[in-house]
Design a protein that fits this description.
The chain has eight helices and ten strands. With 261 residues, it is α/β, with parallel strands linked by helices. A seven-stranded mixed β-sheet has the order 1-10-9-4-8-7-6, with helices on both faces. A three-stranded antiparallel β-sheet has the order 3-2-5, covered by helices on one side. A hairpin with a 5-residue loop joins strand 2 and strand 3. The structure holds adenosine-5'-triphosphate (ATP) and magnesium ion (MG). Magnesium ion binds next to helix 1.
Length: 261
């Protein structure tokens, strides 16, 4: 299959009728700081993702990536524009495991919040512990886990929410390069077995190319969509593949120059 990295030629036009699973149209968000100043985080953002796709969002620090995920999860509302998105759950930038709960109870938390009985919730979570490489750590407290394990517990909690859309905010940002690479493979494998629509925020363009069906590149704040790139490469992808390297360079150039030319 030839190398494919196509920009959507036109800004997408939709409004619920195009079949896109997630669709943002002209979304802007401005914060009012305590001193009365205004900080515009996002400006006129339009993007879309299909059901079961992994959409990666890359952009400079402070360009509104976390804001975008909170909008998708309805934790805040846009000032302008429209958002069409099925129920979404956020895995926040910092893992937020509760230190006094075991790994198992942390993983089962979303089910408990949804009303499941403790034993039932734990049984469900435990069933996935082996699969997620966490066997034997059910009773460990978060501080007894490695960074990669904590992220897997947090991811399991997110997955068990049962929401059709997972919003992952820099899930591997705090990990060393080797663990990060392992976690990328693990995520790709897990999603192959448990398909969901995923919006993945990352500052790592290579990670975006390795994992995503489509990559949105945002400008510096206020974040605007500079490009939405389709990544049509066979999986599994390796960082040493020529096609992956070429796409990474192209996306990095767009990020650096803030334009597609
Ligand atoms: N609650 C808030 N009140 C005021 N300003 C905010 C608030 N949340 C975010 N901001 C500002 O909005 C901008 C975008 O923030 P956001 O956290 O969405 O960026 P980000 O792309 O996720 O950054 P990073 O890459 O560092 O995680 C930043 O300038 C930030 O200071
Ligand atoms: Mg952020």
């Amino acid at each position: 299959m030839p190398t494919q990295l196509q920009s959507r030629a036109q800004p997408p036009t939709f409004g619920g009728g195009t079949g896109a699973h997630i669709a943002l149209e002209g979304v802007s968000r401005t914060y009012s700081a305590r001193n009365g100043a205004e900080v515009q985080a996002l400006a006129e953002v339009s993007l879309r993702a299909g059901a079961g796709e992994l959409l990666a969002v890359v952009g400079p620090s402070g360009c509104g990536k976390s804001t975008l995920l909170e909008l998708l999860c309805r934790l805040q509302s846009p000032d302008r524009g429209s958002i069409s998105c099925p129920p979404a759950v956020l895995m926040p930038q910092h893992d937020l495991l509760l230190p006094w709960l075991s790994a198992l109870d942390n993983a089962a938390l979303a089910l408990r919040i949804a009303g499941a009985k403790r034993a039932q919730a734990r049984a469900r979570a435990e069933g996935l512990f082996v699969e997620l490489g966490l066997a034997g750590f059910q009773h460990a407290r978060p501080h007894e886990l490695s960074g990669g394990m904590r992220q897997r517990v947090a991811f399991l909690r997110t997955l068990l929410s049962g929401k059709p859309v997972l919003c992952l905010d820099e899930p591997f940002g705090a990990l060393d390069a080797i663990t990060r690479a392992e976690m990328q493979e693990w995520l790709a494998g897990t999603l192959a077995g448990e398909p969901r629509t995923v919006v993945l925020v990352t500052h790592d363009v290579e990670e975006a190319i390795l994992l995503a069906d489509s990559v949105v590149v945002l400008s510096p704040r206020p974040g605007r969509v500079v490009a939405q790139l389709e990544v049509e490469l066979a999986r599994p992808r390796r960082r040493t593949d020529g096609d992956v390297i070429a796409l990474r360079e192209r996306a990095l150039a767009i990020l650096a120059t803030g334009s597609q030319s």
